[in-house]
Amino acid sequence: MTVGLAPRQADLMKGTASFVAGRVKENSIFAVLHRECHVLFADELFADLFADSGRRSVPPRIVAVVMVLQRLFGLSDRDAVESFEFDARWKYAAGGLDFDYPGFSHTVLVDMRARLAASQRPRRIFEVSLDAARRAGLVGARRVLDSTPLYDAVATMDTVTLVRSAIRQLLDVVDAKLGAELRAVLARDDDYASGGKATCDWDDAAAREALVHALAQDAYACLAVLDGAELAPAVAQAAELLATVVGQDIETGDDGIFRIARKVAKDRVISVVDPDARHGHKTAVRKFDGYKGHISVDPDSEVITATVVTPGNAGDASVAAELIDDLVGDDDRTDDDGPGPKVYGDNAYGTGEFQSKLEAKGIASGARRSRPPRRATYSPRTASISTSGPAPSPVPTMSPSSSATRATVRAWPGSANRAPAARYGIAAQLPSAGGPSGPGLTKGHWPAPGTVKKARPGPLTTGPPAQRSNASSATSCAAVTAGGEHEYAARRKVTIQVAGRAERAKIHHSGPTIG
Asked: Could you write out the DSSP letters of every residue in 294-348?
C-alpha cells in the first residue's frame, strides 16, 4: 500500500470552508487545524509507513486530523469515523474537504496506529502537536506530574493456567523437528493443543498437587531440551516466558515434589497473553492489573508535555525524571521568560532520590512530602483515672484560673474532638477549692444566670474508643482527680446552684465524665 495524497484545493462550490468558517471561532480547534494541518500533518511526514507500490491509502493527513479530534473528544474509532463523515466541522478541520468527500472504515485508524507503533517515530503526531504548542507560547516552565491506572484487557491467569499456556505457546512457535523433540519429553497425557485450564478433580487436594507436579516436570523437561541450543527469536522469547512463569510460581519441597510457592514474586507475570502487564496499586486499597500511565502537564495551558507507560507495579517517581526532560534540557531560558522551572506532584514524587535530582538541576520542587508522625504529648495537668473496669477513653482535666475553674475535657492526642465543652454543652464553672459541698461553693464563684447550658444526655466520648465493660455499677466506677483537690465518683448526682436560685440540674452520667 502506498501513501495517499490529500486534495490540495477543495471545490469552491462543494467545499466546507465557506460554510463552516463563519460558524466556528478563530481560536477553536477546528479553525486551527484547518489553517495548520497542511504543515503539521503533511502526507510526506508518514511516507516511511507505506510501501513504494500498491494501492493508495487514505491520506495520512486526514487520518491524523481525525485521530487528534478523536482524542480531544474521547470518541471510539467508529464514532470518530462517523463524525468525520457527517460533521462538516471535521472535514473543515481536515483541510476544507468537500461535503461529499467519502468516509472510510474505522479499521483505518487501527491500521495507522499499528504502523506508527512499528515505526522509528511512533510518537510523531504528539511531537508535532507539542512543538506547535511551544511555538505558540502555550508551554511554560512549570509541570504537574501524575499517574493513572491502565487496566489490562486480558484475564489474569492462575499458576496452573500460566504454566500450561506457556508450554502451549512454546509448542506453537517451534518448527516440526524441534516440536517432535519437545513432545517426546512430555509426561502428561495432554497434547497442549487447546487453551483453557487443565482437566482435574479440583475438589481433591491430592489431584491438584499431582497436576502441579506434572506440569512443572513437563516445563522443566522442555527447558532442558532447549538449553544451549541456538533458537529463533520467537522460540527464545517463548522459552524465556516459560522459565519465568515456572520460576516465579513453582518451588521444590524437601521431598522433591513441585508445589505452588506460598508467596508472590516481586515482578510476577500475570498473563502469557500480555507478559508485560503486572499487578499494581494506586493506593493501599485500590488495586488493578495492567499498566500505569504517567503524564506531565503544563498547569496554565493544560497541554500534556510528556507521557510514559510502565508496568502496573512501577512507582510514580521511577519515571519522573523522564517526564521533565524538556525542563532539564532548556538551557536557553532567560529571566525574561518568567519564573524558573518548578515541578508539582503528590507524595509519590516527594522521594529523596527524585528531589535530589531536581536540586542538582536547579529545578524548584512543589511536590508534597510526607511528614513524620507527630509524637504524642501529654499535659502535666492530665487527670489520673483509677477504675476497676477497663480504662476509659476521655481524660477529664481541671485547668485552674484565678478565681474559678472551668470544666474542660482534654482529648487524647489525635482525637477529632477539639472542643468537647462546646460540643457537649459543658459551660458550668466549678470552685477553685473544696469539694462539691465545701467552703469553695459560694455565690461569687458562679457565673451569671443563663450561662449554664444543659448537658446533652449520653456518654462523653472524646478519645480513642475503649472496650465497654459489662460490669455492674457497683464494680464499674471511676475516680477523677484534678490537681489533687477534687475527687468525684462515677454516676454521682451533682447539684448545681446558679446565682442563688433554687434550680437543680440533675446530671446522671456513666463513666468518667463531668456534668
From this structure: EEEE-TTT--EEEEEEEETTS-GGGGHHHHTHHHHT-TT--GGG-SPPEEE--GG
Residues 300 and 140: beta-carbon distance below 8 Å: yes
Phi, psi angle pair for 166, to nearest 5°: -65, -40
140-199: per-residue pLDDT in tens?
A: 999 999 999 999 887 788 899 999 999 999 999 999 999 999 999 998 888 888 887 888
**Residue 31: how many CB atoms within 10 A of its CB?**
17
Cross-strand bridge partners of residue 128: none
For residue 200, what is the DSSP state? -
Number of helices (H), then strands (E), belonging to the chain: the values are 15, 14
Beta strands in 210-272 (DSSP E): 250-252, 258-260
Give how far Cα 52 sits from Cα of 3, 25, 44, 47, Å.
Answer: 8, 40, 13, 9
Looking up cell 468558517 gives 21
- The residue type found at 488 is Y
Q: Beta strand pairing status for 304-311 and 395-400?
A: unpaired
How many Å apart are CA 132 and CA 317, to the nearest integer? Answer: 28
pLDDT score of 236 more than 50? yes
Residues 476-494: b if buried by 16+ CB within 10 A, e if exposed: bbbebebeebbebebeeeb
Do the bridges between strand 486-489 and strand 478-482 make them parallel or antiparallel, or are there none, so unpaired? antiparallel
354-382 residue pLDDT tens: 888 888 889 998 887 766 656 655 555 54
Measure Cα distances from 330 to 213, 260, 298 in Å. 58, 52, 15
**Do 408 and 420 meet the contact criterion of CB atoms below 8 Å apart?**
yes
